[in-house]
Write a structure and sequence with these properties.
Layout lengths: L2 H16 L8 E6 L7 H14 L3 E7 L7 E4 L3 H13 L5 E4 L8 E8 L6 E10 L4 H18 L6 E5 L4 H13 L5 E2 L10 E2 L1 H6 L4 E3 L2 H13 L14 E4 L7 E3 L6 H16 L2 H14 L2 H9 L18 E3 L7 H10 L4 E6 L2 E6 L4 H10 L4
Parallel strand pairs: 1-2, 1-4, 2-3, 4-12, 6-10, 7-8, 7-9, 7-10
Antiparallel strand pairs: 5-6, 5-11, 11-12, 13-15, 14-15
Amino acid sequence: MTHEKQVSNALKKMADALEGKNTAHKIKVALTTIGSELLAEELVQGALMACSKNPLLDVVIIGPKTDAPFEQYNTDCEKEAHSYLEKLLKEKKVQGAVTLHYNFPLGTSTVGKVNAIGSGKEMYIATTTGTSAAQRVEAMILNAILGISAAKSGGIKSPTVGVLNVEGARQVEKALNTLKDNGLEFSMGESVRKDGGSVLRGNDILAGSCDVVVCDTLTGNILMKLFTASNTGGQKETVGWGYGPGIGRNMENIISIISRASGAPVVSGALQYTYEMVAGDLPATAKKQFKQGDKAGLKEILADLAKPSQKTEEVTAPPKKTVTEEITGIDILQLDDGVQVLWKEGIYAESGMGCAGPVIMVNPDDLDKAKQALGANKIL
């Protein structure tokens, strides 16, 4: 079934429920209400908001007793709450969960969702908590797979993907282009800046230029805070869908994360986001993306990254020239190596930082030759 068909079916079932028909099938999502910096009642209020918007969502509360009309498993102990949660998921009594704390294994990270401030467009932030891999560039490549999985489960057939301009971004961009060319189904996004490209800057995050924003987890976590809590000075998250479901190669259950500062609107959004991921069969979608990625060379790309780096031979700089031409598209992790490569070719070059990120500066007469040398050494 296509994702468009899944979304269409979900909307039809919701309409059936509103009309009082019996064909609609509810999805049960557990919500733990212990561990928040806010009162448990705030989280329960979020559940009430979510259910009022979506009659197909059935929330199960795990936490202190409430008068709200939900199925409940009452406890004041966070450890016991998670025991209830694990049991309900294992016994298939709930199809998904929203909780404040969960120890995901290495290789599993969460994909959050926000509204772009400048356009209102929905963006998936990949990723926001967890660790996809110990090595930064490897983790970001995997984060892209996770973001694509979430977006496709949410109904986007060919999500546009951009890479936040952080360390390793250019290497990640090259890897994603290789995967795309080899058959992984997604589209490379385009920056709103004049020079374009798939490496995103602040303008792109505000404008929502791509469906999926790939970044390292710590940066993704900060982005979530800025998007969800800027209106309250960081004291309380009041907008958005939370930090999202934990996604990994072998995921089985859909467990989404909110923070201790998530208010009722975010709890409501997180429950609805989880509902969408259940309806879109996120575990099956993720498995499909990893399988497709492996066929496109994912494992080989990651294996190459794991190889010990060979330090570029130190060479003496050639005679100095006036450098006024910028070569962009160089990852900051390869900037010094790039300068050394050019020096070895007898081309004088200097490293620098332009408005679009790291640059290598050369004389105009050397520009074409320098680009060829950097390309031949897989730096550009």
